[in-house]
Design a protein that fits this description.
Elements lengths: L1 H9 L10 H11 L4 E2 L1 H8 L3 H10 L8 E2 H14 L10 E6 L2 E7 L2 H9 L7 H10 L8 H9 L7 H11 L22 H5 L1 H27 L4 H8 L7 H19 L1 E5 L9 E2 L16 E5 L1 H5 L7
Parallel strand pairs: 5-7
Antiparallel strand pairs: 1-2, 3-4, 6-7
Helix pairs in contact: 3-4, 4-9, 5-9, 11-13
Length: 315
């Protein structure tokens, strides 16, 4: 009876506890051998520098000399995030967002829920839609020199320990609450429009929810790609030779992780340079004072078209 009530309220099966045995085992088949994982395995999946993984490994109390039990990795990661002040949802596959000044963590981010959301969009669900989104969701922006170098060489990311913990948690289908200030509520409405300003709190909640779904979507692609479950899509978008090319796989993995890293460290606000056919826009890397905000977060400016086209708010 209680299970039925939970399913009715959440619209599906009740979520599993954090670091549940089933989820740990499933994730460990993607980043390790099914029961344990190594720093090198995590570094490969998340395109991380070995040094940043070594610092994280030590911070969660693991030794790099031997493979770590994935259950210990999961529990150590959640403990580290909580000690860092990051709010965790009460269960797996649940995302957090703010409503009326209160943090709620009941957004369904299960793979099936994300599939359902994406299947209603104009693109095909799956890795192919995610690749398409990398070039189609924002206005044309030329990449900076460092980004072009990263795309060519698949340069690994130098994560902070907390950021890497958040990414590892996502691999275990645990979605920490966003840091404060990601959504610029006062700016989510055109300047001088009082009626639109009144809608800003609603729009901020919407953006938080869509951001959580987007991160879960990219995480699903990262996890599936790591376990070689994207052969058809990789062949379609990058050519059949990419299936057997370690260099190509490193580049694809780097792009996927770059999307997640940018979304995780972005600030969203209303754009003042929008055109009628734009969902959002950004400024070229390292070429404008508007590239990042005062806290060092990437600025992503949303346009009216984003708020009026629900099926495109994730892809």
């Amino acid at each position: 009876l209680l299970l039925g009530v939970a399913e009715a309220r959440l619209g599906g099966p009740s979520p599993l506890p954090l670091c549940a045995e089933e989820l740990v085992r499933e994730t460990c088949t993607r980043i390790g051998n099914g029961t344990s994982a190594t720093p090198g395995g995590v570094a490969a999946v998340l395109s991380a520098e070995e040094g940043s993984v070594a610092k994280f490994w030590a911070a969660v109390g693991l030794t790099s000399e031997t493979p770590a039990p994935c259950a210990d990795l999961c529990r150590g990661t959640t403990a580290l995030l909580q000690a860092s002040g990051r709010r965790l949802p009460p269960a797996s596959d649940r995302g957090c967002y703010s409503r009326g000044g209160e943090l709620r963590c009941d957004l369904d981010l299960s793979p099936q829920a994300i599939q359902n959301v994406m299947s209603s969009s104009s693109g095909d669900f799956g890795f192919s839609a995610g690749v398409n989104a990398m070039g189609a969701s924002f206005g044309n922006v030329s990449a900076g020199e460092e980004d072009e170098k990263r795309m060519v060489e698949a340069t690994p990311f130098d994560y902070s320990t907390e950021d890497l913990a958040a990414r590892v948690a996502q691999l275990f289908r645990i979605y920490p609450a966003l840091r404060a200030g990601v959504i610029a509520v006062d700016e989510l409405a055109p300047m001088g429009q009082a009626a639109a300003k009144a809608e800003a709190p609603f729009e901020a909640e919407l953006v938080e929810q869509r951001l959580g779904q987007s991160l879960a979507y990219v995480n699903l692609a990262v996890r599936t790609f790591a376990s070689d479950g994207t052969g058809t899509e990789v062949s379609k978008w990058f050519g059949p030779e990419a299936l057997e090319s370690p260099a190509s796989r490193k580049k694809i993995s780097s792009v996927l992780n770059s999307v997640s890293n940018v979304l995780s460290s972005a600030s969203f606000s209303t754009g003042q340079a929008c055109k009628s056919n734009m969902f959002a826009y950004v400024y070229p890397c390292a070429s404008s004072e508007w590239e990042k905000d005062s806290a060092g977060r990437f600025n992503i400016f949303l346009c009216d078209m984003f708020f009026s086209t629900a099926e495109e708010q994730i892809c």
